[in-house]
Automatic annotation (TrEMBL):
InterPro entries: CBM21_dom, CBM21_dom_sf, PP1_regulatory_subunit_3. It comes from Cirrhinus mrigala (Mrigala). PROSITE patterns: CBM21. Residues 1-57 are annotated as: Disordered. This is CBM21 domain-containing protein. Coiled coil: none annotated. Residues 1-10 have a biased composition (Basic and acidic residues). Pfam families: CBM_21. Residues 130-223 form the CBM21 domain.
Amino acid sequence: MSRSKSDSGKKPVKIRPPSPKTAPRQTAGRSLSCEPPTKSIIQRRTQSLPSPSERRRLSRRASVRFVDSLGLDLENVKVFKSGEDPFVPEHVLFRLLMNAELSSSKRMEISLPYLKPMFSVQPGDCSDFTERLCCQQVCLERVLCYEPGIIGIVQVVNLAFEKEVSVRYSFTNWKSCSETKAYWVASKSFTNGPCCDTFRFHLPVPPFILHPGAVLEFAICYK
């Protein structure tokens, strides 16, 4: 076969295959990706069971506290020691004595060893008590003697809404005296008598006063 001039004038073109390239090295601990590394969302926790001593300590921590709408405590815990007499508030003892007298057919009287009323009949049990109350506007109704002192019950005629009752007392035949305030207890109406208010007062008796011949005198003032 004959070659043409155009074919004889062209030189063959050499083709070189691509050279093999090594994979890029990755830096330890770093990723070429822009996305943050993924983390496992499953976490395992292990905890040993508490010992019996720890359970007792935890159970002692649990407590209940009762409070009112203002956050104040509703209870008052008092721990009494062996041989210690509990303290009874005055108003509690007063109500107990009054309820005992009202519920009993016989008038109950608790007298101190050396101090007791000079009258055998309580003024409120006298037949002329209502008459004297209308005349004097104020009258002693009852005296209760007990260990911490004396409680007196006073009836006053309801002349005004605001009223004040005080008691002046003396252990020295009025050479010296003290004064205390009586507190309102309740309202009371007598049959065929005026509308009255009941007041209560307490006279403390010091222990050194309780000796033979000791005398307590008091006077009631109504304003």
